[in-house]
Amino acid sequence: MTTAEQRILATVDALADEIIDFSAxxxxxxxxxxxxxxxxRVMEDELVRLGLPPERVPIDPAVLxxxxxxxxxxxxxxxxxxxxAARPADGQGGRSALFNGHLDVVSPAPVDFWETDPFTPVIxxxxxxxxxxxxxxxxxxxxxxxxxxxxxxGFGLRAxxxxxxxxxxxxxxxxxxxxxxxxxxxxxxxxxxxxxxTLYTAQVGVLWFKVRMRGVSCHVQATAAGANAIEKSYPIIxxxxxxxEAMNAEERPAAYRAIQHPLNLNIGIFNGGDWPSTVPAAxxxxxxxxxFPGTPYPEVCERIRxxxxxxxxxxxxxxxxxxxxxxYGFRSEGHTLSRELPALATLNGCHRSLIGQDAETYxxxxxxxxRAFHFFGKxxxxxxxxxxxxxxxANERVNIDSILQVARxxxxxxxxxxxxxx
Length: 422
Ligand SMILES: [Zn+2]
Description:
Blueprint: H1 3-14, H2 16-27, H3 37-49, E1 55-58, H4 61-64, E2 81-87, E3 97-102, E4 122-124, E5 127-129, H5 133-152, E6 156-157, E7 161-166, H6 174-181, E8 188-191, E9 199-203, E10 205-214, H7 233-249, E11 265-272, E12 282-291, H8 297-313, H9 316-320, E13 324-332, E14 335-336, H10 342-355, E15 361-363, H11 370-376, E16 380-383, E17 388-389, E18 397-399, H12 400-419, E19 420-421
Parallel strand pairs: 3-7, 3-8, 8-16, 9-15
Antiparallel strand pairs: 1-2, 2-7, 4-5, 5-18, 6-19, 9-14, 10-12, 10-13, 11-12, 17-18
C-alpha cells in the first residue's frame, strides 16, 4: 500500500458516518417501481453537494424500441429517469471506471411481516434495516463516497470516472441500458450488488412471462356448467415446473456444475376471481424463469410456450380455449467471464491489500445490470458489494462494516485502475 493509498483509505474511514447517513436517507425513500422520484432527488442533491452534478438520463422507449436489449414493459417512462455523473480525467495514462447502482426497490409487502417499518431506516447491532438497505442503497452510497474520498484526499484521477444511479433494475434493466445507449461506458464496470465482497463471474439469463386462462363463470349451484380459470392454471404451472426440472438436468456451463439447482422458476403474481360463490372466468399468473449462459432468450420463450401448450392439450377445455402466453420485462441473457481479466484482477488485488486474502468467486443464479455492459458495451464488469440478508424479503438488512469495506475497496480500485493525479 502506498502512502497515497493510505491517505485515501483514511479519508474513507473519516467519511464513514456520512456514508451510512446517506445510505439511511436513501432507504427512507420508498422507491418502488414508478415511485423513484424522491430517491432520485436525494441522490441528485447528494451528488451536487459532493461536486459531482449528474445528468438526468431518460428511458425513451421510442429510441430504444429496436435495441436488442430493450425489454418492452406495460408501464410508462414518463417523467422517470436515471442519474449519471461523469467526472472527466485529470490527465492521462489511466483506465476509465464506471460504478453503477440501482435505486429502485421491490415492494416490501406484506408489511406486517416486518419488525419495523420498511422505509424507516433503523440501525441495530451493526446492521442497517429497511427495504433497499442491502439491495442496493448501501452499495450506492459506498460507490459515491469512494469517488468523493479520492478527491477529498486531494487527488485527481488520470481517467474518467462515471457514477450511475439507475431505475428499472428489478424488472427489466432498461435503466442501465438507456445510460449505455446515452454513451456511458468504461474499461471497468463495478456494481455493488449485495452479494458480498466477491468477484462475480457468472450470471444466468432471466425472463418474465405471463399466462392468461379463460374459463366460463357461473353460479356455484352447478359448477360443472362453468370452467374454473383458476383451477385451469394448476396443470399449466405443473408443466412449467417439469420444464424447470428438465432445464436443470441438461448440460450446463462449467461455472454452474457445482450448484445444486441453479435454474429457478418462480410464480410471483397470481390474479383471478372475485367471489367465493362464482366460478372465475379469468385468471392469470406471472412468472420468472432463469436459463444458462449461452442459451438464447427466444429459445427459452419457445420452451415456455411449448410447456403451456402441452398442458393445454391434455385438458379438453384448455385445448379448445388455449391459454395466452406473453413476455414482458426481463429478457436478459446470461454470461460468464474470467476472474483473470485485468479489471477483476485489479479489484482482487485491492481486496487482498485490505483483507489479506483473495476474494472468493461468486456464481450468480440471478441477473444484474452487468448485462447492459457485457453485451452492449466495452466494459468488463463485476459485482463486489456489501453483505446483506433478506433482500426481497421481510426485515432486509445490510451489514454496516461491509458497506465501508466496499467504499474502501472501490476507492483503492480508483487509485490503482485510473491512476492518481496529484
Ligand atoms: Zn439489486
